[in-house]
Structures are given as C-alpha cells and as structure tokens.
Design a protein that fits this description.
By secondary structure, the protein is mostly helical. The chain has 15 helices and five strands.
Length: 600
Amino acid sequence: MSWGNELWDQYDNISSHTHKGIEFLDKYGSFVRDRCAIEIDYAAKLRRLVKNYQPKKKEEEDSEFTSFQSFRNVLKEIGDLAGQREVVAENLQQQVLSGINLLSKNLRDERKKALQEGQTLTQNLQAHYGALERAKRNYEKAYRDAEKAVENYQKADADLNLSRAEVEKQRHNMNMKCAQSDDAKNEYANQLQKLNRLQSVHFETALPDVFNRLQEIDEKRTRGLKEFIKGAADVEASVAPIISRCLEGIVKASESINEKEDSIKVIERYQSGFMPPNDVPFEDLSKMDTNSQHSSNAVGGTNVNHMTSKGTVTANKLKKRVGIFGIFGSNKNSLAPDGMKEDFSDLPPTQRRKKLAAKVQELTTKVQQEQAARDGLMKMKGVYEANSVLGDPMTVEKQLNESNHNLEKLKQELRKYQHMLEQATNQSILQQSPKSATRQNHTQNGQRGSRHSNGSEHHDHHHSRDGEDQPDDAGSLSSSASPESGLGTSHTSLPGSGQGSASEQINDDHFYDPEPLQPLGTCRALYPFEASSEGSIPIKDGEELHVIELDQGDGWTRVRRMNEWTEGFVPTTYIEITLFVDVEGVDHLYVNIDNKAEQQ
C-alpha cells in the first residue's frame, strides 16, 4: 500500500505528519546530546571523587594494611569506570548524534523539495479550474445574449410598423450573438477537456509520485531512528566487558582484605618491646623508716613502672613537644627531617629495631648503586686510557674521586647503623632473659639508694657493678631529656626535687628505669579546658593538680592529676600555680602567670 493511492486527497495531513516525524528525530537527537552531557559530567564527578579520596601523604604509612590497599584498588577501578563513561559519551557523539543531525538535514531538504513540487502541481490544477470557470461564465453570458437577440429579432419581424432596415439590423445582431455564443461554447468545451486531462494526470500520476516520495522520506526517517537506537545500545554494550572487569576488580579488591594480616601488622607497627610493669609492692607504714629520704625513694621506686608504661603509650602524643622546647635544651642526637632522632632512640625498642633495619637496607641499596656507578666510571676511564680518541681520562678522574668519597661516606654510615642495630638486638635479648630482668631489678634498687648522692659516688657505684658491658643509651626509651618522652628532666625543675645529674639519667636509661618527675607545686584550674591537641589533657574549673614542669615560654604547663599518673599540658593562663619552694626566677614567673590569668 502506498500513500499515493490511499491518501491521494490527504496532502495537508501528509505534510504535517512528515514534519512531526522529522521533529521527533530531532528530539531523539537532543536526548542523545543531553545523555552525552550527563555521561561526561558523571565521569568528571567520578574522577573528582577518586582524586578527593586518594591517600594523602600523611596516610601513606597506612598503605601496608590490606584494607587500605583494597580501597586504593577500588579507587583505581572507579577511575577506570569513569574512563568508560567518557568512551560511551564520545562514541554516542561520533556514531549516533552526528548521524542523527546529518539524516535530519537530508530529510528536511528532500521533504521541502517534494512539497514544493506538490504545491506546483496543485497550483497548476487550480489555474485550470479557474480558466474553466471563466470559460463557463463567458459561455453562459454569450448564450443569454444570443437568446435575447433571437427574441428581439422575432419581435421585430412580427411588428409590421418597423421598417425592413430595422428588421435586418435585429437579424444581423441575432446572427452575431449566436456566433459569439457558439465560440464561447467551444472555448468552454476546450477548457473542460484540458482540465479533465490535467486532473486525471494530477490525481493518478503526478501527485501520487509526490506522496510516494514523502512516504519514502518518512520510512527512511523511521528506519534511521531504529538504527540509531540500536547503535546507542551497541555503544553501551561495547564497554560492558571492560566495566564488568572493573567490577570484578572491585570484588577482587574486597576479597584481598585480610583482617588477621592487618591485626599482625598493627602489632608489628606499635609493638614497643617493653615488658609489662611489675606488681606494686605493699607499703607497710608501721615498718617504714622515718627517714624522709627513704620514703621519697620508695615512692619514686613504686612509680617507675607506671611512668614507663605511660611513656610507652603516650610517646607518640608527647613527641610534638620537641618543636616547642627543643631550642631551650641540648640533645646529643640530631633530628631527622621527619622529626625523629637520627638513631631513632626516641622510639620503643621494637620500633627502633625496625627503623634501624629499614635504614640499613636503604643504605645497603645506596652503597650498591654507588658501587655500580663507580665501576662504570672506572670502565669508562679504562676505555679512554686505551683509546684517547674517545675521551680524556682526566675528565672522569674528578667524578671517580667524588664517587669514591660518597661511597666511603655511605659505608661509614652503613657501619654505624649496623652497629646500632646489633646493639639494639643484643639489648632486646638481654632484656627478655630472666638474668637481665633480675639484674634490672637489682639495678633499680641500687639506683634508688643512690639517687640523691653526689655525682662521683654514683659514678663509682656504676663502675663497681658486675663488669658487664651496658647497652648503648641510644636504644633506651627515655635517652632524651626532651618533654615528648614524658620522662625526661625539665630545665626548670627545682633543686632537690629528685632529679639526678645528666650522667645519672644516662645510666638510668640503660636499664629503662627513668625517675618520675617530682611535683614542683600545685595548681588550681581557673577555667575549664577541653583537650583538643595531642599531649594536652582536659581540666575542670577548680580542679587541683600537681605541677611537674613549668611554662618554658610556649604558654603551656605540664601537670599531673592528683592520686593518678595521668599527665599532660594545659594552658598556663588557665591555672593558678603555687610552688613548694621559692627559686630564683620562679617568683617572677609566678607573678607573670597570675597576671596572665587575671587578663584572661
């Protein structure tokens, strides 16, 4: 069935239908265009999401955990998914949208041409209808005039009063009108024949051809829409295998998470290597010596394990105080760029051994690289000496000397860290052995007995021990007197507060027996304080605390809670300090503290 035969009289409806069909094709093109924009925007947001959740530099230390590695792989797969959405958008634009635009343009041009031809045919037919109408009207007028002329002649011929000349005139007029009527009749018949022939051709051949072409245009549009919809699905299907592999990668990443392995890595990262503290002995006050010196030593001895345990737990939190007070004290161990000591002595034994082992491995790799570079320079020098045309051997001599110098420095540093690692390993073995534990307890008792003796007496006592080599102080937890360890000596500590000399601190560090800081006084909280930074503790309004370290210029005072060993830093302006004794420079500091509190 064709439109030319079945819809021969529906020119306006066919024109409207083809116009709506092309507009629908353009509408689908707009749909594809908007979808491409959404795909591109979705891909951009996915990439931005992946970028925002990429591990930060401070989170790189957690990359060893399987959960962290899994999430990083998930981000990678999500980034690949974003790339596939971009591929979908690009292919839709190139394969579908461009085809829709081209087809729509061609269909509009063909439809316009067909409609113009149909309009021309219709106008021609209408012109013939007009000519027929005019011929018919002329014929009708000529026929009425002829009839009237015949009637006038008959009246004149019957009237005896008229002259013969008058009668002849009427007859001549009659003949002329009859001739004009016959001519009009012939013209009318001629126009009618032309119209019928044209009308037959118009409705049977010419106009059906136009309608058939419009039918082809509409079918072409419908067929194109079908192909474009299928093409859009094919574009989506082409990336489906890659998207499926991305999803399989996400599933594989989830399956790679191992909670047991992560737990072991947590142990490896945070294991200090210290032994749990001993039981706190019972103090029978009825049997205690009235000597205040012995009482003070006993209190200090029972608190060592608590401080050691606390120092192990809060070492990382108190580490940041180095930046505040480092300029006021001396430290024989220089700091690395990451804030740690060069020999890692501020770390617990287990962590220190791991750091030293990693440093040894790093230096070993550097030594091997430098040796390879030196060997290459030596070979180059030999080639130049064998054939001076290739180059001057003296140009390599300077580089070779510099390489030898760098290699020697690296070897020295490697030997230094190997020695540190060996000492740390031996120290761990000694610490874990029962003999070492017994010697440590004995040493603690001996140290407590001579804690307030002069430096020479302590020195003699130290060298009169069993003669065993003591571990290097680099491996101790509290070898530094900096505030971050929580165990060191304050530069503003009062005389006679239980703090020994520098040599006594070093000897104590050999056996992990740091002396707890004795209170310098008490303080009362003027305002409540919520701890918001590492190393600080919260206080309540009116709370009483021990002062164990005065403000060293940074606006913070180190305090300890009453009846417990919780320590930390609080703002100096939030407390009112009362010292046990007056020391030179302390009264001035006390006045300043009161003034700051009043201003606050």
